[in-house]
Amino acid sequence: MTQKHASDKMPKGLFAAARWAAERTPDSRNRAVDLYRAIAISFVILGHWLLVAGVIRDGELDFVILLAEQPWTHFATWLFQVMPVFFFVGGFSNGLSWTSARKDPVKKSAWASSRLSRLLKPTVPVVLFWAVAGAVAHMLGVSVELISNASQAALVPVWFLAVYIIMTMAVPATMALWDKMGIASVGVLALGAIMVDAIAFGADQGWLRWSNYAFVWLAVHQLGYWWGTAERPKTWALGFVALGCVWLYVLIVQFGFPVAMVSVPGAEMSNTRPPTTAMLAVGSVQIGVILLLTDLAQRWLQNVKIWTWVIVFNQMIMSIYLWHMTALLIVVGITAYVFAGVGLHEAPGTGLWWAMRPIWVALFTAVLVPFVLIFVVFEAGSKTTADMRPSPWQAMFGAVMTCAGLVTMAMVGLGKENAIGVNWLAVGLVVFGVFVATRRFSAR
Q1: What is the three-state SS of 151-174?
Q2: Radius of gyration (Cα) for the chain, nearest Å?
Q3: Residue 32 pLDDT more than 90?
Q4: Do the Cβ atoms of 169 and 217 come closer than 8 Å?
Q5: Which of 279, 263, 329 lies closest to 68 in space, CA to CA?
Q6: How many CB atoms lie within 10 A of CB 356?
Q7: Which residues pair with 55 in a beta bridge?
Q8: Residue 444 pLDDT exceeds 60
Q9: Could you give the 3-state DSSP secondary structure of residue 201?
Protein backbone atom coordinates (compact mmCIF):
# COMPACT_ATOMS: atom_id res chain seq x y z
CA MET A 1 0.00 0.00 0.00
CA THR A 2 1.38 3.40 -0.92
CA GLN A 3 1.83 6.18 1.62
CA LYS A 4 -0.99 8.16 0.02
CA HIS A 5 -3.42 5.28 0.25
CA ALA A 6 -2.42 4.60 3.87
CA SER A 7 -3.14 8.20 4.84
CA ASP A 8 -6.58 7.98 3.23
CA LYS A 9 -7.64 4.96 5.24
CA MET A 10 -10.13 5.81 7.98
CA PRO A 11 -8.48 5.41 11.42
CA LYS A 12 -10.01 3.46 14.27
CA GLY A 13 -11.49 5.20 17.29
CA LEU A 14 -14.57 7.42 17.41
CA PHE A 15 -12.82 10.78 17.67
CA ALA A 16 -9.99 9.91 15.27
CA ALA A 17 -12.49 8.70 12.67
CA ALA A 18 -14.57 11.86 13.15
CA ARG A 19 -11.50 14.03 12.69
CA TRP A 20 -10.57 12.08 9.57
CA ALA A 21 -14.08 12.62 8.18
CA ALA A 22 -14.12 16.30 9.17
CA GLU A 23 -10.92 17.00 7.27
CA ARG A 24 -12.39 15.38 4.14
CA THR A 25 -15.88 16.90 4.24
CA PRO A 26 -16.63 18.66 0.94
CA ASP A 27 -17.51 22.36 1.13
CA SER A 28 -20.82 21.64 -0.60
CA ARG A 29 -22.15 19.64 2.38
CA ASN A 30 -24.84 21.28 4.47
CA ARG A 31 -23.08 20.90 7.82
CA ALA A 32 -25.73 22.93 9.61
CA VAL A 33 -28.10 19.94 9.35
CA ASP A 34 -25.90 17.92 11.70
CA LEU A 35 -25.49 20.88 14.05
CA TYR A 36 -29.26 21.45 14.26
CA ARG A 37 -29.81 17.77 14.97
CA ALA A 38 -27.26 17.87 17.80
CA ILE A 39 -28.74 21.04 19.28
CA ALA A 40 -32.26 19.66 19.07
CA ILE A 41 -31.43 16.43 20.90
CA SER A 42 -29.61 18.47 23.55
CA PHE A 43 -32.72 20.58 24.08
CA VAL A 44 -34.89 17.47 24.42
CA ILE A 45 -32.60 15.97 27.03
CA LEU A 46 -32.18 19.20 28.96
CA GLY A 47 -35.93 19.73 28.90
CA HIS A 48 -36.55 16.29 30.38
CA TRP A 49 -33.85 16.74 33.01
CA LEU A 50 -35.25 20.11 34.06
CA LEU A 51 -38.97 19.41 33.95
CA VAL A 52 -39.04 15.87 35.40
CA ALA A 53 -38.24 16.22 39.10
CA GLY A 54 -37.64 13.54 41.70
CA VAL A 55 -38.93 14.59 45.14
CA ILE A 56 -39.51 12.87 48.46
CA ARG A 57 -42.93 13.56 49.94
CA ASP A 58 -44.27 11.91 53.07
CA GLY A 59 -41.24 9.64 53.07
CA GLU A 60 -41.93 8.29 49.58
CA LEU A 61 -40.07 8.97 46.34
CA ASP A 62 -42.26 10.60 43.73
CA PHE A 63 -41.67 12.09 40.30
CA VAL A 64 -43.22 15.45 39.50
CA ILE A 65 -43.74 16.90 36.04
CA LEU A 66 -43.04 20.57 36.61
CA LEU A 67 -45.46 21.52 33.84
CA ALA A 68 -48.33 20.38 36.07
CA GLU A 69 -47.23 22.55 39.00
CA GLN A 70 -45.65 25.61 37.38
CA PRO A 71 -47.89 26.97 34.56
CA TRP A 72 -45.23 29.46 33.42
CA THR A 73 -43.12 26.53 32.23
CA HIS A 74 -45.70 25.91 29.49
CA PHE A 75 -44.11 28.75 27.52
CA ALA A 76 -40.68 27.11 27.92
CA THR A 77 -41.97 24.19 25.85
CA TRP A 78 -41.92 26.46 22.80
CA LEU A 79 -38.15 26.23 23.08
CA PHE A 80 -37.76 22.63 24.24
CA GLN A 81 -40.32 21.05 21.91
CA VAL A 82 -38.05 20.50 18.94
CA MET A 83 -39.67 17.51 17.25
CA PRO A 84 -40.43 19.67 14.19
CA VAL A 85 -36.69 20.32 13.85
CA PHE A 86 -35.98 16.57 13.83
CA PHE A 87 -38.53 15.88 11.14
CA PHE A 88 -37.40 18.87 9.08
CA VAL A 89 -33.69 17.94 9.07
CA GLY A 90 -34.70 14.28 8.76
CA GLY A 91 -36.62 15.08 5.59
CA PHE A 92 -33.61 16.92 4.23
CA SER A 93 -31.26 13.99 4.92
CA ASN A 94 -33.67 11.28 3.83
CA GLY A 95 -34.46 13.12 0.62
CA LEU A 96 -30.82 13.45 -0.41
CA SER A 97 -30.04 9.86 0.60
CA TRP A 98 -32.98 8.35 -1.28
CA THR A 99 -32.36 10.51 -4.37
CA SER A 100 -28.82 9.16 -4.52
CA ALA A 101 -29.72 5.54 -3.76
CA ARG A 102 -32.51 5.16 -6.31
CA LYS A 103 -30.05 5.74 -9.14
CA ASP A 104 -28.61 2.27 -8.44
CA PRO A 105 -31.05 -0.71 -8.27
CA VAL A 106 -28.94 -2.56 -5.69
CA LYS A 107 -28.55 0.46 -3.42
CA LYS A 108 -32.21 1.29 -3.89
CA SER A 109 -33.26 -2.15 -2.69
CA ALA A 110 -30.95 -1.95 0.34
CA TRP A 111 -31.76 1.67 1.24
CA ALA A 112 -34.49 0.92 3.80
CA SER A 113 -32.41 -1.59 5.75
CA SER A 114 -29.35 0.64 5.67
CA ARG A 115 -31.30 3.66 6.88
CA LEU A 116 -33.03 1.66 9.61
CA SER A 117 -29.87 0.05 10.93
CA ARG A 118 -28.70 3.03 12.97
CA LEU A 119 -32.23 3.82 14.12
CA LEU A 120 -33.23 0.35 15.27
CA LYS A 121 -30.11 -1.36 16.61
CA PRO A 122 -29.54 1.06 19.54
CA THR A 123 -33.00 0.23 20.92
CA VAL A 124 -32.06 -3.38 21.65
CA PRO A 125 -29.63 -2.85 24.58
CA VAL A 126 -31.82 -0.30 26.37
CA VAL A 127 -34.91 -2.51 26.05
CA LEU A 128 -33.01 -5.61 27.26
CA PHE A 129 -31.50 -3.60 30.12
CA TRP A 130 -34.94 -2.66 31.41
CA ALA A 131 -36.34 -6.14 30.75
CA VAL A 132 -33.59 -7.72 32.88
CA ALA A 133 -33.94 -5.01 35.53
CA GLY A 134 -37.69 -5.58 35.63
CA ALA A 135 -37.31 -9.36 35.97
CA VAL A 136 -34.77 -9.00 38.78
CA ALA A 137 -36.94 -6.44 40.54
CA HIS A 138 -39.93 -8.78 40.27
CA MET A 139 -37.94 -11.61 41.87
CA LEU A 140 -37.04 -9.24 44.72
CA GLY A 141 -40.69 -8.48 45.36
CA VAL A 142 -41.06 -5.15 43.56
CA SER A 143 -44.63 -4.58 42.38
CA VAL A 144 -45.50 -4.85 38.70
CA GLU A 145 -46.97 -1.35 38.89
CA LEU A 146 -43.64 0.14 39.99
CA ILE A 147 -41.79 -1.82 37.28
CA SER A 148 -44.22 -0.44 34.70
CA ASN A 149 -43.93 3.14 35.93
CA ALA A 150 -40.14 3.12 36.10
CA SER A 151 -39.65 1.46 32.71
CA GLN A 152 -42.24 3.70 31.08
CA ALA A 153 -40.48 6.80 32.40
CA ALA A 154 -37.17 5.52 31.01
CA LEU A 155 -38.56 4.39 27.66
CA VAL A 156 -41.14 7.08 26.93
CA PRO A 157 -38.72 8.86 24.53
CA VAL A 158 -39.07 5.95 22.11
CA TRP A 159 -42.53 7.16 21.01
CA PHE A 160 -40.81 9.72 18.80
CA LEU A 161 -38.46 7.10 17.43
CA ALA A 162 -41.39 4.87 16.46
CA VAL A 163 -43.01 7.72 14.53
CA TYR A 164 -39.74 8.65 12.83
CA ILE A 165 -39.13 5.04 11.79
CA ILE A 166 -42.51 4.96 10.04
CA MET A 167 -41.72 8.27 8.34
CA THR A 168 -38.43 6.82 7.11
CA MET A 169 -40.20 3.77 5.70
CA ALA A 170 -42.58 6.08 3.83
CA VAL A 171 -39.77 8.01 2.11
CA PRO A 172 -40.10 6.28 -1.30
CA ALA A 173 -43.81 7.16 -1.37
CA THR A 174 -43.42 10.69 -0.01
CA MET A 175 -40.56 11.43 -2.39
CA ALA A 176 -42.74 10.24 -5.26
CA LEU A 177 -45.39 12.68 -4.02
CA TRP A 178 -42.76 15.42 -3.92
CA ASP A 179 -41.60 14.63 -7.45
CA LYS A 180 -45.18 14.98 -8.67
CA MET A 181 -46.38 17.97 -6.63
CA GLY A 182 -43.34 19.74 -5.23
CA ILE A 183 -43.98 22.31 -2.49
CA ALA A 184 -47.73 21.91 -3.05
CA SER A 185 -47.47 18.51 -1.34
CA VAL A 186 -46.59 20.31 1.90
CA GLY A 187 -49.68 22.48 1.54
CA VAL A 188 -51.91 19.46 0.93
CA LEU A 189 -50.66 17.69 4.04
CA ALA A 190 -50.92 20.86 6.16
CA LEU A 191 -54.46 21.42 4.90
CA GLY A 192 -55.28 17.83 5.82
CA ALA A 193 -54.02 18.48 9.38
CA ILE A 194 -56.15 21.63 9.64
CA MET A 195 -59.24 19.76 8.44
CA VAL A 196 -58.62 16.99 10.98
CA ASP A 197 -58.46 19.50 13.83
CA ALA A 198 -61.54 21.33 12.56
CA ILE A 199 -63.64 18.16 12.35
CA ALA A 200 -62.23 16.57 15.52
CA PHE A 201 -62.88 19.60 17.72
CA GLY A 202 -65.78 21.15 15.84
CA ALA A 203 -67.80 17.95 15.43
CA ASP A 204 -66.58 16.22 18.60
CA GLN A 205 -64.83 13.44 16.67
CA GLY A 206 -61.72 13.10 18.83
CA TRP A 207 -60.78 9.71 17.40
CA LEU A 208 -59.96 11.43 14.11
CA ARG A 209 -57.11 13.35 15.75
CA TRP A 210 -54.83 10.31 15.65
CA SER A 211 -54.53 10.68 11.89
CA ASN A 212 -52.57 13.87 12.49
CA TYR A 213 -49.55 11.79 13.41
CA ALA A 214 -49.34 11.35 9.64
CA PHE A 215 -50.56 14.72 8.36
CA VAL A 216 -48.57 16.92 10.76
CA TRP A 217 -45.25 15.12 10.78
CA LEU A 218 -45.32 14.20 7.10
CA ALA A 219 -45.88 17.88 6.26
CA VAL A 220 -42.79 18.89 8.24
CA HIS A 221 -40.75 16.00 6.82
CA GLN A 222 -41.90 16.96 3.33
CA LEU A 223 -40.71 20.50 3.96
CA GLY A 224 -37.26 19.01 4.51
CA TYR A 225 -37.35 17.83 0.89
CA TRP A 226 -37.98 21.42 -0.12
CA TRP A 227 -34.95 22.59 1.86
CA GLY A 228 -32.80 20.12 -0.03
CA THR A 229 -33.88 21.52 -3.40
CA ALA A 230 -34.62 25.21 -2.75
CA GLU A 231 -32.21 27.63 -4.41
CA ARG A 232 -32.54 30.49 -1.88
CA PRO A 233 -34.34 29.11 1.18
CA LYS A 234 -33.21 32.01 3.40
CA THR A 235 -35.56 34.35 1.55
CA TRP A 236 -38.46 32.33 2.98
CA ALA A 237 -37.23 32.51 6.59
CA LEU A 238 -39.07 35.59 7.86
CA GLY A 239 -42.23 34.39 6.15
CA PHE A 240 -42.07 31.09 8.07
CA VAL A 241 -41.52 32.94 11.36
CA ALA A 242 -44.40 35.37 10.73
CA LEU A 243 -46.76 32.59 9.61
CA GLY A 244 -45.96 30.52 12.68
CA CYS A 245 -46.46 33.42 15.10
CA VAL A 246 -49.82 34.39 13.60
CA TRP A 247 -50.90 30.76 13.51
CA LEU A 248 -50.01 30.28 17.20
CA TYR A 249 -51.90 33.44 18.14
CA VAL A 250 -55.03 32.28 16.36
CA LEU A 251 -54.93 28.76 17.79
CA ILE A 252 -54.13 29.73 21.39
CA VAL A 253 -55.93 33.06 21.81
CA GLN A 254 -58.86 32.62 19.46
CA PHE A 255 -59.51 28.87 19.65
CA GLY A 256 -58.22 28.04 23.13
CA PHE A 257 -55.50 25.53 22.22
CA PRO A 258 -53.05 24.77 25.05
CA VAL A 259 -49.97 26.98 25.45
CA ALA A 260 -47.78 23.96 26.24
CA MET A 261 -46.28 22.18 23.25
CA VAL A 262 -45.93 18.92 25.18
CA SER A 263 -48.47 16.88 27.14
CA VAL A 264 -49.27 18.21 30.61
CA PRO A 265 -50.48 15.71 33.25
CA GLY A 266 -54.12 16.33 34.07
CA ALA A 267 -54.77 18.61 31.09
CA GLU A 268 -57.88 17.97 29.01
CA MET A 269 -56.02 18.42 25.73
CA SER A 270 -52.52 17.91 24.40
CA ASN A 271 -50.84 19.54 21.41
CA THR A 272 -48.58 16.54 20.90
CA ARG A 273 -50.44 13.33 21.70
CA PRO A 274 -51.82 13.28 19.11
CA PRO A 275 -50.28 16.35 17.44
CA THR A 276 -52.42 19.36 16.58
CA THR A 277 -51.72 22.01 13.97
CA ALA A 278 -50.06 23.99 16.78
CA MET A 279 -47.06 21.76 16.11
CA LEU A 280 -47.03 22.99 12.52
CA ALA A 281 -47.16 26.57 13.81
CA VAL A 282 -44.29 26.25 16.26
CA GLY A 283 -42.43 24.23 13.66
CA SER A 284 -42.86 27.05 11.15
CA VAL A 285 -41.19 29.47 13.59
CA GLN A 286 -38.35 27.04 14.30
CA ILE A 287 -37.76 26.35 10.61
CA GLY A 288 -37.67 30.08 9.89
CA VAL A 289 -35.00 30.56 12.55
CA ILE A 290 -33.03 27.61 11.17
CA LEU A 291 -33.04 29.12 7.68
CA LEU A 292 -31.95 32.50 9.02
CA LEU A 293 -28.98 31.03 10.88
CA THR A 294 -27.81 28.44 8.35
CA ASP A 295 -25.26 30.64 6.54
CA LEU A 296 -23.72 31.68 9.86
CA ALA A 297 -23.67 28.05 11.04
CA GLN A 298 -22.02 26.93 7.81
CA ARG A 299 -19.20 29.44 8.23
CA TRP A 300 -18.71 28.49 11.88
CA LEU A 301 -18.55 24.79 11.03
CA GLN A 302 -15.69 25.32 8.60
CA ASN A 303 -13.54 25.13 11.74
CA VAL A 304 -12.31 21.52 11.67
CA LYS A 305 -12.24 21.15 15.47
CA ILE A 306 -15.82 22.32 15.89
CA TRP A 307 -17.03 20.24 12.95
CA THR A 308 -15.26 17.18 14.37
CA TRP A 309 -17.15 17.47 17.67
CA VAL A 310 -20.44 17.85 15.80
CA ILE A 311 -19.65 14.64 13.91
CA VAL A 312 -18.76 12.85 17.16
CA PHE A 313 -22.02 13.91 18.78
CA ASN A 314 -24.06 12.76 15.79
CA GLN A 315 -22.30 9.39 15.81
CA MET A 316 -23.69 8.73 19.31
CA ILE A 317 -26.90 10.72 19.13
CA MET A 318 -29.28 7.74 19.35
CA SER A 319 -27.50 6.33 22.38
CA ILE A 320 -27.63 9.70 24.14
CA TYR A 321 -31.34 10.03 23.41
CA LEU A 322 -32.30 6.49 24.41
CA TRP A 323 -30.34 6.38 27.68
CA HIS A 324 -30.81 9.88 29.11
CA MET A 325 -33.93 9.06 31.14
CA THR A 326 -32.33 5.87 32.45
CA ALA A 327 -29.47 8.01 33.76
CA LEU A 328 -31.95 10.29 35.53
CA LEU A 329 -33.78 7.40 37.18
CA ILE A 330 -30.55 5.77 38.34
CA VAL A 331 -29.24 8.99 39.92
CA VAL A 332 -32.52 9.83 41.63
CA GLY A 333 -33.03 6.23 42.80
CA ILE A 334 -29.55 5.93 44.30
CA THR A 335 -29.88 9.35 45.94
CA ALA A 336 -33.24 8.43 47.45
CA TYR A 337 -32.47 4.94 48.71
CA VAL A 338 -28.72 5.04 49.36
CA PHE A 339 -28.01 8.63 50.35
CA ALA A 340 -31.19 9.35 52.34
CA GLY A 341 -32.69 11.58 49.66
CA VAL A 342 -30.11 14.35 49.83
CA GLY A 343 -31.37 17.19 47.63
CA LEU A 344 -34.76 15.55 47.02
CA HIS A 345 -36.69 17.19 49.84
CA GLU A 346 -36.83 20.66 48.30
CA ALA A 347 -40.18 21.48 46.66
CA PRO A 348 -39.84 21.57 42.83
CA GLY A 349 -39.99 25.03 41.33
CA THR A 350 -38.61 26.99 44.28
CA GLY A 351 -35.55 29.22 44.00
CA LEU A 352 -33.32 26.77 45.83
CA TRP A 353 -34.61 23.91 43.68
CA TRP A 354 -33.66 25.77 40.50
CA ALA A 355 -30.29 26.71 41.97
CA MET A 356 -29.58 22.99 42.45
CA ARG A 357 -30.53 22.02 38.89
CA PRO A 358 -26.99 22.43 37.45
CA ILE A 359 -25.70 19.94 40.05
CA TRP A 360 -28.36 17.41 39.11
CA VAL A 361 -27.75 17.89 35.39
CA ALA A 362 -24.02 17.28 35.98
CA LEU A 363 -24.82 14.07 37.87
CA PHE A 364 -27.18 12.86 35.14
CA THR A 365 -24.49 13.57 32.56
CA ALA A 366 -21.84 11.70 34.54
CA VAL A 367 -24.04 8.58 34.63
CA LEU A 368 -25.16 8.93 31.01
CA VAL A 369 -21.65 9.08 29.54
CA PRO A 370 -20.61 5.49 30.43
CA PHE A 371 -23.84 4.09 28.96
CA VAL A 372 -23.24 6.00 25.74
CA LEU A 373 -19.60 4.93 25.46
CA ILE A 374 -20.54 1.28 26.06
CA PHE A 375 -23.49 1.09 23.69
CA VAL A 376 -22.49 3.52 20.94
CA VAL A 377 -21.19 0.51 19.00
CA PHE A 378 -24.83 -0.32 18.20
CA GLU A 379 -25.08 2.90 16.18
CA ALA A 380 -22.48 1.80 13.67
CA GLY A 381 -23.96 1.38 10.23
CA SER A 382 -24.25 -2.05 8.68
CA LYS A 383 -20.88 -3.38 7.50
CA THR A 384 -22.50 -5.64 4.90
CA THR A 385 -22.55 -4.63 1.27
CA ALA A 386 -25.78 -3.42 -0.33
CA ASP A 387 -26.49 -6.75 -2.04
CA MET A 388 -26.32 -8.55 1.32
CA ARG A 389 -28.99 -6.47 3.06
CA PRO A 390 -32.70 -7.31 3.43
CA SER A 391 -35.27 -6.33 0.86
CA PRO A 392 -37.42 -3.23 1.46
CA TRP A 393 -40.45 -5.35 2.36
CA GLN A 394 -38.53 -7.42 4.88
CA ALA A 395 -37.04 -4.26 6.40
CA MET A 396 -40.48 -2.68 6.61
CA PHE A 397 -41.96 -5.77 8.27
CA GLY A 398 -39.21 -5.75 10.88
CA ALA A 399 -39.63 -2.02 11.46
CA VAL A 400 -43.37 -2.40 12.05
CA MET A 401 -42.76 -5.14 14.62
CA THR A 402 -40.17 -3.00 16.36
CA CYS A 403 -42.47 0.00 16.44
CA ALA A 404 -45.29 -2.08 17.92
CA GLY A 405 -43.05 -3.07 20.82
CA LEU A 406 -41.67 0.45 21.30
CA VAL A 407 -45.10 2.08 21.35
CA THR A 408 -46.32 -0.43 23.94
CA MET A 409 -43.36 0.39 26.20
CA ALA A 410 -43.80 4.14 25.76
CA MET A 411 -47.49 3.90 26.70
CA VAL A 412 -47.56 1.39 29.58
CA GLY A 413 -43.98 0.38 30.37
CA LEU A 414 -42.63 -3.15 30.59
CA GLY A 415 -44.33 -4.45 33.73
CA LYS A 416 -46.72 -7.37 33.27
CA GLU A 417 -48.61 -9.71 35.59
CA ASN A 418 -46.86 -12.96 34.70
CA ALA A 419 -44.12 -15.26 36.02
CA ILE A 420 -41.28 -12.84 35.29
CA GLY A 421 -43.13 -9.56 35.79
CA VAL A 422 -42.10 -8.30 32.33
CA ASN A 423 -44.02 -7.95 29.08
CA TRP A 424 -41.92 -10.45 27.16
CA LEU A 425 -44.06 -10.02 24.02
CA ALA A 426 -43.17 -6.31 23.72
CA VAL A 427 -39.50 -7.10 24.32
CA GLY A 428 -39.61 -9.88 21.75
CA LEU A 429 -41.22 -7.63 19.16
CA VAL A 430 -38.37 -5.15 19.47
CA VAL A 431 -35.52 -7.67 19.48
CA PHE A 432 -36.90 -9.87 16.71
CA GLY A 433 -38.15 -6.86 14.73
CA VAL A 434 -34.67 -5.33 14.67
CA PHE A 435 -33.22 -8.67 13.58
CA VAL A 436 -35.71 -8.98 10.72
CA ALA A 437 -35.18 -5.38 9.57
CA THR A 438 -31.41 -5.61 9.44
CA ARG A 439 -30.58 -9.20 8.47
CA ARG A 440 -31.00 -10.87 5.08
CA PHE A 441 -32.68 -14.28 5.23
CA SER A 442 -32.28 -15.47 1.66
CA ALA A 443 -29.82 -15.04 -1.19
CA ARG A 444 -30.57 -12.63 -4.01
Answers
A1: HHHHHCCHHHHHHHHHHHHCHHHH
A2: 22
A3: yes
A4: no
A5: 263
A6: 14
A7: 62
A8: no
A9: helix
pLDDT of residue 199: 95
Nearest to 68 by CA among 262, 308, 296, 213: 262
What is the structure's pLDDT at 86? 93
Return the minimum-mean-pLDDT range out of 58-62, 64-68, 315-319.
58-62
Max intra-chain CA distance, the chain: 73
- pLDDT > 70: what percent of the chain? 95
Residue of 331, 345, 330 whose CA lies nearest to 57 = 345
Which of 403, 123, 78, 67 has its CA nearest to residue 267? Answer: 67
Do the Cβ atoms of 31 and 298 come closer than 8 Å? yes
Q: How large is the average pLDDT for residues 70-79? A: 91
Rounded Cα–Cα distance for residues 193 and 277 (Å): 6
pLDDT of residue 194: 96
Q: 274 preceded by cis ω (within 30°)?
A: yes
Residue pLDDT, tens place only, 191-237: 999 999 999 999 989 899 999 999 999 999 999 999 988 888 889 99
pTM of the predicted model over 0.85: yes
Over residues 371-394, the pLDDT tens digits come to 999 999 988 765 566 667 788 889
Report yes or no: 406 and 437 within 8 Å, Cβ to Cβ. Answer: no
Strand partners, 275: 272
Any idea where the domains of the chain sit in the sequence?
29-438
Cα separation, 5 vs 244, whole angstroms:
51
Residue-level length of the chain: 444
Helices (H), 203-264: 212-229, 237-249
Label residue 34 exposed, middle or buried (CB < 10 Å: 0-12, 13-18, 19+). Answer: buried
Rounded Cα distance between 352 and 294, Å, is: 38
Exposed / middle / buried, residue 221 (Cβ in 10 Å: 0-12, 13-18, 19+): buried
Instruction: Compute the distance between CA of residue 396 and CA of residue 119 in angstroms, rounded to an integer.
Output: 13
